[in-house]
Amino acid sequence: KDESKENGFGIDEDKKWKRLNGKPFRNSFGRSGLKRAIGVKYTRHNLPQVAYASKEIILSAGTFVSPVILMKSGIGPARQTQAANVESISELPVGRNLLDHSVVGVQVQLNKPKYSWNVWDNLTYTDLHEFLKNGSGPMTGSEYSAQARLLSTDLPTKLGKSDLKNNSNASLWPDLQIRYSYVAYEYGTVTCNVEGTRPVSTGSVRLNSTAISMTDPNLPIIKFNYFGSEK
To answer: 106 has which bridge partners?
Structure first.
């Protein structure tokens, strides 16, 4: 079944998308009028390829690369796309409101190293085989042997029964997490991490207009802005 006609598209003999009234798009990605993405351009074995979608396109390239792909396609802040010589297709706040958890870790040297478990010295292929075959052994344990979650602010003065029973009041949710790890990345040490679980400071992901290709490690400009808010 050809669903392209139901969506207002057709395919001519050259396999290029066009409107049903015969007026072609400026290119094969619906950048004229409808602003509808119908395919993906990519490179394989150093050759340009095009994959057309029968229903929809799902972009799932992670927190940092997904906004870059959108901006490279002309979707995002116009100032950033135009600076990279990309035609602005849709002005949207792509790359804003980046949230990440800040972590402060403390590593302690033990007087008795036997109470820690060193990844590099203690993990063996036998442990891996035991885990894959029987689902047992040291690889089944969590890296963090003890955890605590705390609320750093004062509790609200008025709490309803539903707040305590259903945990529906967001002000009661913990905003700090303390995790103790016996897994040592240096011999004879243990680690204690303190993490913020409800960050309020927002950062951004921007497009580096000087990046040459998608493989350029400097392609995204990431600003975490961990402590941008006094909260």
So the answer is: 192
CA distances from residue 15 to 18, 51, 225 in whole angstroms, order as listed: 9, 11, 46
Could you tell me which of 179, 204, 208, 173 has the C-alpha nearest to residue 191? 179
End-to-end CA separation in angstroms for the chain: 55
**Tens of each residue's pLDDT in the chain, 231 residues:** 333 333 333 333 333 333 333 333 333 444 445 577 788 888 888 888 888 888 888 888 889 889 988 888 888 999 888 888 888 888 899 999 998 888 888 888 888 777 677 766 777 888 889 989 999 887 787 777 778 888 776 666 565 655 556 666 667 778 888 988 877 667 778 888 898 888 888 999 998 877 767 677 777 889 999 888 877
Q: The whole model's pTM is what?
A: 0.62
Cα 58 to Cα 63: distance, rounded to the nearest angstrom: 14
Q: Among 25, 38, 94, 44, which residue's Cα sits nearest to residue 66?
A: 94
Residue 95 near residue 77 (C-beta atoms within 8 A): yes
Domain covering 9-96, topology? FAD/NAD(P)-binding domain (3.50.50)
Q: Which residues pair with 44 in a beta bridge?
A: 47
**How many CB atoms are located within 10 Å of the residue 81 CB?**
24
Instruction: Delimit the CATH 3.50.50.60 region(s) of the chain.
Output: 9-96
